[in-house]
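[User] Once you have settled down, look closely at the record that follows, and write a paragraph about the fold.
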Amino acid sequence: MNKDYFVIVIVILSMISIVGYVHTTSSFSNYVFGEILNKAVLNQDDGGSIQKSKTISEISEDKIMDNDTTSQFKRAPEFQKIEGSINTNDSAPISLVSLKGKVVLVNFWTYSCINVLRTLPHLIDWDTKYSDSGLVIVGIHTPEFEFEKNTDNVKSAVHKYGIKYPVLQDNAYGTWNAYENNYWPRMYLIDAQGYVRYDKIGESDYGHTEKVIQSLLNELDTNKDIKNTDNDIFSYYTNSNIIQNTYKNNVSSFLAQPIDFSKIKTPELYFGNQSSRSAIGNPEGLHLGQAINYFLPSSSLTSNSSIKPNTIYLEGQWKNNPDNVELQSNTGRILLSYSAKSVNMVVGVNSSDNSQNQSQVTIYEDNSLISDKSKGIDVKNNSKFTIDEPRLYNIVNHQSYSSDNRTLLVDIKGKGFQAYVFTFG
């Protein structure tokens, strides 16, 4: 190796070190206890959409309890461009400044995301157990789909799931961008001085998150020793006056089901061509703004061999919208070969094309009406259900995972039916 070559190598290595240092120190999420709290493992489909997040967190409790090291933490950004609020006092808009002296859990969510919905029982449980001790949860509702910007829709979801803590509408992504966020769900824990002390991406690891909450609350009053009360995580759902009827109890049971991500072989599947993520496999393709006549592959209803797994097939005339496909004919069908325990659909109805503002849906699986033991919580005894508002509907809920793919057929009656995404559990 000659001298000039050696010098060039040294220069290149030095530049790499500098770039790595700048990248590491500039990231918002790295302002944590002098070490990396979270390692997010993001499983993506070929289109790059995030399917689920798992977090492995390792933290030293003595660093949580250290009040003299706040200089190493990032100050939490103020809530920005908020367009509406729920469960708040309108005469006194909620802000981080107004919450100084409290432990604040900022939770980014959107009401039609299954990954988000599975976190809600835990958030509600923490709100119930720790609000009197100084914890304030603030839900930042940043919409994924256009219908999630509607205040009435968000209010309906807040009531449906029994959320009592404040929810702020972040329709313009002002607060989302201020926090440099890219995920649903994501939780930030902010201490009484306004510093970000914990950053959690995705589902799971609830026990560890609760310990961080307890430690930050203990910083407020060293005379108290807040510990896990070991309540049933879902006791709020089962005992609340809000949730009494059978359907809502079924919702809580569904959200409480354990999920084995390693056994879910089908990723999220989007219908619209937003961000080029559409999973539609018909040869007719997608053409934004156009109404296309789609046809199911021949023999697809009797044999899986003619369709690709994890691919959506349509029948009927469908308009291609940016974030959904919309049924233009009076009837239509959707076919999918999938591998998971449960199947959800985010769907709605375009009321301008449907005077009744409803669509009727029948669910078939493996060439038969879906059985009572496998139907989702939104499906009635006759394997049918009605779409009457835009939201996530659980249409299949098997008792266990299977190594084999299942064939799902969704039969729709009602022009204006809009399909956004399939999600799985």
In short: The first strand starts at residue 38 and ends at 44.
